[in-house]
UniProtKB/TrEMBL annotation:
The keyword Membrane applies. This is Glypican 2. Pfam families: Glypican (PF01153). InterPro entries: Glypican, Glypican_CS. Cell surface proteoglycan. Residues 1-23 form the signal peptide. GO terms for cellular component: cell surface; endoplasmic reticulum; extracellular region; lysosomal lumen; plasma membrane; side of membrane; synapse. Coiled coil: none annotated. The keyword Nucleotide-binding does not apply. Keywords: Cell membrane, Glycoprotein, GPI-anchor, Heparan sulfate, Lipoprotein, Membrane, Proteoglycan, Signal.
Amino acid sequence: MSALRSLLLLLLPLCPGPGPGPGSEAKVTRSCAETRQVLGARGYSLNLIPPALISGEHLRVCPQEYTCCSSETEQRLIRETEATFRGLVEDSGSFMVHTLAVRHRKFDEFFLEMLSVAQHSLTQLFSHSYGRLYAQHALIFNGLFSRLRDFYGESGEGLDDALADFWAQLLERVFPLLHPQYSFPPDYLLCLSRLASSTDGSLQPFGDSPRRLRLQVTRTLVAARAFVQGLETGREVVSEALKVPVFGSCSQALMRLIGCPLCRGVPSLLPCQGFCLNVVRGCLSNRGLEPDWGSYLDALLLLAEKLQGPFSFELAAESIGVKISEGLMYLQENSVKVSAQVFQECGPPHPVPARNRRAPAPREEAGRLWTLVAEEERPTTAAGTNMHRLVWELRERLARMRGFWARLSLTVCGDSRMAADVSQEAAPCWTGAGRGRYLPPVVGGSPAEQLSNPEVQVDVSGPDVPTRRRRLQLRAATARMKAAALGHDLDGLDADEDASGSGGGQQYADDWMAGAAAVVPPVRPPRPPYPPRRDGSGGRGGGSARYNQGRSRSRGVCVGFQTQPILVLSLSALSLLGPR
C-alpha cells in the first residue's frame, strides 16, 4: 500500500490540469502593460488604466470579467471604434467621390470650351466673309451662343425658343440687305416673320438648315447636360452614402470587435475575419445603393458613348457655323423666289432714294469661303483633351466602381485594425469573448440573410429615409440619362418631334455632316402664328414670331410624351416606397 502511495505521488506532477477557458490568456498574465502602452500612445491618461487586471463588473459592453478598462475608458473606446469604422468606410469610397468630381469638371470644361471654340470660329469666318455687315449684327450670333450656354447650364429657356428667335432675327436683318433699294418698316418685318413661321411651310427662307441645326444642337446639348448632371448627382449621392450612421446595436458590436481586446489586455490579438464580416455587414445593412448603382453606371457609359458617336458634341458645336452659313447661302441663292412670295403676301415695299441705299451682301465670297472651310480638317481637341480620351478614361475608372457596395464589407475588414488577414484564418483570433476560433456562421449582405446576423440586430423595416432618397436620386439621374440617349429631355418635358418613336436616333445620326441629304420631318399639327417678341437686338432679345410657338409646342403638341417622364419617375418612387 505504501508502495502504491509513493507511485501516485511520483506521477501526480505529470498529470495535466484543466484546459484554459475563455479569458485565460488575461488571467495568466494579469498585466495591462500592453494596453497601457497602446492607449497611452493615443493620448489616454495612464491614471485611468490600472497596471493589472481588475474586476470587470462595471463594464457595459465588453465581457464582465477581468479587465484593464474603467467605465470612462470603455465609453471613450466606444466613440473611437465608431469613428474608426466611419473613417474606414469613407476612405474606402473616397476614390469614387474624387473620380466623379474630376470627371464632372473635365467634361464640363470640355463642353464649354467646344462652344467657345465654335463661337470663335464662326466669328472669324463670318468676319472675313461679311466684314462690316457681320460686325453690325454680331450680337445676334453672340446671343445664340449665350443662350446655348444658358441651356446647358440649366439657367436658360428651351432650345426651340432660342433657335427660333435666332433665325427670326437673322431673317429680319438679312432680308433688307438683299433689297437695299427698298424700305422695310417694323410692320413689314412683322409680316415677314409671320409668313416665315406659317404652318404650311410655304416660305422656308433658310431651307432645311434651321431644322437640321435644331436636331443636332438640341440632342447634343440635352445629352451633355444630362451627362454632367448625372456625374454631379453620383458624386453627391456617394458622398452622402459614405457617411454611415452608427446605431446602438452596431456601436456595441464594433466595440466588442476592436475595443474589447484592449480592455482584456490583449490589444495585439486581432479579431477573427468572420466576426468582422458579421459586424460590418450588420452595420452596413440597408445602407448600400445596389442594384441602382449598377444601372447608374450603365447609363453613364451609354450616354458617354452617344456623345462620342451619334450625338458627338464636337461635330455639333463645329457645325453651328456651317448650318448658319448654309441657311444664308440658301436665302441668297433663292432670293428671287423668296422675295416674290414675300412681296405677294406682304405687299410691295417702298423704294429708298438711291443715295440712301446700302451695299448688298457679298454672296459669292461667302460661298467660296465656307466651301474652303468645309474641306479643311477641323480641330478635335479642347481644354487640352478630346472626347475619345475622356470617354476612355471614364470607362476605365467606372470599372473600379462596379460592385463597390457589395464588396465594401470585405474592403473594411481587409484593414489590419478591423480583423486578422484571411491568410491567418487558422490561427487563434479574437472571437468577442477571448482567444479562439469564430464559430457562428458568417451571413451574407442581403436583407434576408441579415435577419439571422448573430452580432448585430438589423432593422427589419428596410432602408431608412435618407437611403431611399439617395436611391431615388440615382434612379432619377439614370432615367434622365437613358432618355437623353434617345434624344428626349425629361427636365424640359420637351419631346423632339422630328425623332419621336422608334428609329429616332438613327434619323439623327444620318443628319450629322454638313451637306448630307435632308430628312423629311413628320407632319405637325396646325398652329396659329404669333407676333414676334422684341426685347432688343442681341442676347435673348429680338423679334420672333415663333417665340410662343416653341412654348405651345412643348405644352400642347407633346402631351403624349409628357406623360412618359412622369411615369418613369413615379415608378421609381413607388418601387422605393412600396413593399420591401
